[in-house]
Amino acid sequence: MIYFIYLLIVVALIDVLFQLTLISLFTLAFLLYGLSLILGSLISGFCLDKFDFKLIGAIGLFATGFILLGYLLTDTQLLHFFHGLASGLLLPAPFVYLAGLNTDKTKHRLILFSGVSFAVALMIGSALGLIIEPKFSLNHVVIPLGISMIILAILVIVFFPSEPKVTKEKSTLPATLNLVKNLLNEQQYGFAYAGALLLMFSNGALAYLLPIKIYSLDYGNQLLLFLIITLAFVSSLVFTLPMSRLDQHFSKSLVMTVGVLILAICLLLLGVFKLKTLLFIVIILYGIAFTCVLSSILTLVVEGMDQSNRDIAYSLLFCFSIFGLISGVFIPAFFPTIITSFFISALVLAFCSTYLFYSIKVNQGVSS
Description:
Elements: H1 2-22, H2 28-48, H3 53-70, H4 77-90, H5 92-100, H6 107-135, H7 139-159, H8 173-185, H9 187-216, H10 221-239, H11 252-272, H12 276-304, H13 310-330, H14 338-362
Helix pairs in contact: 1-5, 1-6, 1-7, 2-4, 2-13, 3-4, 3-7, 5-13, 6-10, 6-12, 9-11, 9-12, 9-13, 9-14, 10-12, 11-12, 11-14
């Protein structure tokens, strides 16, 4: 059953990443979808505290599946808004369920498979939006994706066991807001959420700028596809290697911060390099850094959560991740040249990583 949850993670992330790379920038639809994703994630965290995963997961899957099929009939801004709400409601649910299974023996396995699922979905979703959609009609993507989600919703209802009843005080809205405030003020979660924002900012910038870079060099879709596959393969492979567990030997915050700095260097080099071989080398380095950062983020969140805060903890993680992804796609689009966009994106990451280094030095009490 646990592998079914990982499948849900992959499908849910593919839907979100495909939409964000497909919707035109500087449009109301893009803004509505992004904001509703964040709102949906917050609602999910509140609902998961009151209802079990089976209900929230089924509702999210059904709603997202039918909305995807609704694009066959219309493509309105209101539909994008409700699509974001449904996707945001679904995203934290499988992670919260996995967190409920977390023990000292299963913690590393949870982080490993969650990270691999995240890496694979990130690259598949980007590939769908950047490569498949321009070559085929939208129907070739939304129909199988929508039907898959509806089938998964039925499977969740029929085969997935309900969570055992646990006696705990149901959170009110003021209590939930107070929990959000407390989590944001905790050093461990603060570093995790900052890392999530910066990691997804980098991925958003890469998803937006890399195709433009490749097309400007007249390399075409084939090289872009190979680069994306290489990134997905390297990221997934590194998660299974001891390299992904550097945070067991060094400060998790430090590993995450160094990884963000390496991501900044990679973006800068991608803006400068033109040879295919050099581009592949940088993408491989990017994949390694991506994995180390994501592993540290997941470890910080998983180790810090308990039954009382896991719903909101993952909800906030996705809010920061989505905001970072949208910012990473949106901000580079303001600049006139590719190299300038790469440079500004790298500068943002470098500046933030420097600030995180300073924060680590000041707050030596951060969990290692």
